[in-house]
Amino acid sequence: MTEKVQLLAWSKGTGLGLSQVYGFMKQSGGHVALYSEPGEGTTVKLYLPRYKGPDEAAFGDERQDEPGRSGNGETVVVVEDDEVVRRFTVNALRKAGYRILEAAERR
Length: 107
What we know:
Largest sheet: 2 strands, antiparallel
Number of strands: 4
Number of helices: 3
Helix content: 25-40%
Shape: globular
Number of domains: 2
């Protein structure tokens, strides 16, 4: 991606879905980073907070009780060509209560 495209990548309507990723990460208490070199490829890294277990507050305060903090049956689309990464992601999201639609590639 060019620098201009990177700046627009988080906007709605780009077709990349990164605005939704950004919103999910912010809601989850994490953050996202984008790195790209034109002609070489793009990496999007998601940094989620560590799960501390059912007896500890995941965020150190009452925020885990807010709506949207768990899957509650909501649907997430996981598109990942690396099967190991896809399986790990799908299993983690299912355990968090999300319904998953998965694909190995974009169509």
